[in-house]
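Write out this protein's structure.
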Amino acid sequence: MSKRKIAKAMVQSHLYTVAPDFVSNCHRDGTKIEMNPEFRAVCHDILAKQGYSNPGTRNCIMNEAWRDLGIQKTRDSFRKKTYNFEDCILYPALNNFPLTLDQARLVASMTADLIFINRPEVVIEDNKRNGLSISIARDGKQVILSPNMMNICTLCHELSHIYLQQNGDENTGHTAKFMAIQIVLLARFCEDSFDRLLQLCKEHNAPIDEEFACNLNQVTPEL
């Protein structure tokens, strides 16, 4: 059994100990857990003693453990926080160069080889939400870029969603795993340092699964 599976089992064991009735009667309703800071604090302590020093990784393991028991709803709870971090901290710190459609398709093809996914189609289409242009990752098969969002950071953002969609993650939103994938891609395509981007995430408490990020970075070739 892997270290991560052992850590998840310890979290689940603690939940069974402190709330057996909740586990047996639960029907995919994680509200009670999410609203119990004392329980979360104990789980953080359990995982810290197992060597998981990054809070984002600990949160990710807890969420995986509870989903395995069928007791947590899938929510894009980090969406706003992720957008704020990207817009105010991460993207301004990078060389966010513009792309043509052909260049975007080439990056998507290179990404497929780098992180072992099927190459998604990349198209340009003007989509808006609340009057603002948006880009979309659709069903693990297609990236839709707005004409005024043709840049490397937006593309890496959507390709990170594509990775989650293709790999069957229950939550394909702006999770700690999503951020881990994104900084691996940004480090390559923006010609930046993975360690620097990881440190930015940690300094600004951005949700990131540090363990997954480091493992993916190790197996992802340089350009």
